[in-house]
Amino acid sequence: MSALAFTVRGLGFWTPGYPDLAAWRARPDTWPEGQAPPTEPSAPKAELLPPMMRRRTSLLTRMAAEVAAQALQDGGVDRAAATLVYGSVYGEIRTTLDLLAALLVAGEPLSPTKFHNSVHNTAAGYVSIATGNRAGNAALSAGRSTLAMGLVECAALVAAGEGDVVLVIAEEPLPEPLAAGRRWDPFAAAFALSAPVPGDMPARTCRLEHGPSDMLPAPRPVPAALAENPCAAALALVEALAAGAPARIALEPHLAVGWQCTLGAGA
Amino acid sequence: MQPYPITAMALCNGMGDSTAAVLAALRAGRSGLGPCPAEFELDAVVGAIPTPLPPLPGFLGPVRDTRQTRIAAVALAELQAPLDRARARWGSDRVAVVLGTSTGGIEASETAYAHAQAHGGALPADYDVETSHALDAVLHVARVLGGGLGGPAYVVSTACSSSAKVFASAQRLLAAGLCDAVLVGGVDSLCRLTVRGFAGLEVLSSRPCRPFSSERAGINIGEGAALLLVERTGEGPARLLGVGESSDAYHMTSPHPEGLGARLAMERALRHAGLSAADVDHVNAHGTGTKQNDSMESAAIRAVFAGATAPAVVATKGYTGHMLGAAGATEVAFVIDAIAGRYLPASVGADPLDDTLAVDVVTARRDVPTRAALSNSFAFGGSNCSVLVGGPA
């Protein structure tokens, strides 16, 4: 087995209107003209975080905590021992914008809570505190390649014998004026990875390869506003893993040649 | 882990705009801290790069030309020859880029946001959130100016441990066979948000910071870049021996009071390298200049080295200020210079020492060799990393 192989033992998913992967997979294939997909509730429960902690957190951190908890439970992974890797292009961009407004418009002192909540590893910090997890964690960013690079980092962690690794991908909307018209819906997905065991979960065993992005058409349509999310490649991956059939998913569909994830590599 | 050679490095920060200038100041005990440049309208002591930053080459486009990418370009320019050699030896697609940053291009966003406020919401023409602000903006610049680096490329952003943790990623990418060389490091620029943010936390000193001194009064913010080349094999001044990562699981901004996470990071780095505390001669401390850090980091060092000879402790943020996302790699580079030059730099500002800490802080330069050294970085979110570096084989 290649050093770039891993088995996905658990999954997590959240987007407005679809609080978990089962709800997401049961979505309609089309929405009647003029009818938008459901968008409530606007934030996940994120019950992994104690209420006092949760009320200080952003949509991004709540989404990350929610899908991390789902993947940990789905995969039967020890939440206090796993290594969590977080990937997001813009991270805590809403909180950052709040700080810019306080800094440049109001001229106010900056809120210490907002300041420490603006770092890219905010969710990593809160989740580690909430779960008593003293393993290392990481928060990554690589533009539209964030999913691919998150999987590369996680595959290397698995290969290094670091045990269970959970990749959490989360992206919230870009606020104006910085967005300059870019609009997308928020979502988060999580993948609990571990070293492959021959014969165990062959359909969920994956191999990372670099090559042409010859992605098959997405099996199910996704709402246009979600497809605009810069982490949208994770939508195809989570869906394929949930379906459990052999597949090849382009992790960098914006590139002609990029990282691919082949599912069913353990068969 | 298998040790990997560190074959080249380049630095720029408050001490100077070239590796030679920075290391000359370190060897001479000369701090790079000073008043904040007027353009930031901040009354603070900072470590600002002392010379004007040249604009990026025009072909990269105006939206990519930010203070942060300019700083990266200054350091990259010094690495052209080693990167040319690495690309020729391994192939462009086998050279990865893993960079730490906490600020990304936020300095550009501050200017853009102010412009939008004054112009009915319109952003300036030379700003784009995707290429000016985003954490990964610096990756494109590094890959292109590095001569076309085609291996995996990502940013690690865990606040003040960012560019220490890149060494862990680099080591794993090499061990997994995903690449044969990694350009690692950290790049952060001064900005209003971080200076004012730390002011809000009431940890900013109005004077040059004095880690481990009884007269400490908080931290200063610094900027700069440290870029290093780690390769599968090769000749260099030092080797990456191990990296230890941990989380405090305690508090978002306050370190664990007994330094539990710091201790775990150092112990894991030693275990990772198959070494013991007795093999380590010096520790480059996180040493920010706060009482909380000095107290917990000293406790952690005492615990790790209980039963071994106490290591020499060097704190270098009195030279650079706290470079946040660029601090970890900068301090690894300082350790490498100490190993290569057989000296320990003075911890500028540390005298008179806080005697209650009971660690051997180097207050005046010592001309002694180092076999191996740990470089500590601790961050918001309880993110800790200790990088273990040794001399050449």
Automatic annotation (TrEMBL), chain A:
GO molecular function, one term: acyltransferase activity
SUPFAM superfamilies, per the entry: Thiolase-like (SSF53901)
Residue ranges of domain Beta-ketoacyl synthase-like N-terminal in the record: 30-200
Pfam families, sorted: Ketoacyl-synt_2
Superkingdom of source: Bacteria
Name of the protein this chain belongs to: Beta-ketoacyl synthase chain length factor
Organism of this sequence: Nannocystis pusilla
Automatic annotation (TrEMBL), chain B:
EC number in record: 2.3.1.179
Group of enzyme by EC: transferase
Protein family per UniProt: Belongs to the thiolase-like superfamily. Beta-ketoacyl-ACP synthases family.
Keyword annotations: Acyltransferase, Transferase
Ketosynthase family 3 (KS3) domain span: 1-391
Database matches in CDD domains: KAS_I_II
SUPFAM superfamilies for this protein: Thiolase-like
Biological processes, Gene Ontology terms: fatty acid biosynthetic process
Organism: Nannocystis pusilla
Residues in the signal sequence: none
GO MF annotations in UniProt: 3-oxoacyl-[acyl-carrier-protein] synthase activity
Annotated GO CC locations: cytosol
Record bears the keyword Transmembrane helix: no
Name listed for the protein in its UniProt record: Beta-ketoacyl-ACP synthase
